[in-house]
Amino acid sequence: MAWFLLLLAGLFEIGWAVGLKYTDGFTRPMPTVLTVASMIISIVLLGLAVKTLPMGTAYAVWTGIGTVGTVLLGIWLLGDPATSVRLLCIGLIVAGIAGLKLAA
C-alpha cells in the first residue's frame, strides 16, 4: 500500500509542477487552487508512504516520478525539446527509481 501511496504522491507532484505553468504567476485563481491542492495532496501522501518506506528511498522515488512526469508532459504539452540527451537522462532516472524500488 505504501508504494501505491508513493506513486499517487508522485502523480500529484507532476500535477502541481505542470500546474505552476498554468497559474501564470499565481494570477489565475482556478489553476492556482488546483496547483496548491495538488501540492498539499502530494505532501500528505508522501508523509503517509514514509511511515513504512525508508525516507531516502521514498523521497528519491517521489522526486523521480515528479521529474520524469514533468519533463514528459513538458515535451508533450508545452513544446519542450525532446533531444536524445534529455530522453537518455529520463531513462537514467527511471533506472534509478527501479533500482531503489528493488533495493527497498
Automatic annotation (TrEMBL):
Subcellular location: Cell membrane
Record keywords, A-Z: Cell membrane, Membrane, Transmembrane, Transmembrane helix, Transport
GO molecular function, one term: transmembrane transporter activity
Highest taxon, organism lineage: Bacteria
InterPro entries the record matches: EmrE-like (IPR037185), Small_drug/metabolite_transptr (IPR000390), Small_multidrug_res (IPR045324)
Membrane topology label: Multi-pass membrane protein
UniProt KW Iron-sulfur keyword: no
Record-linked NCBIfam families: PRK11431.1
Record's protein name: Guanidinium exporter
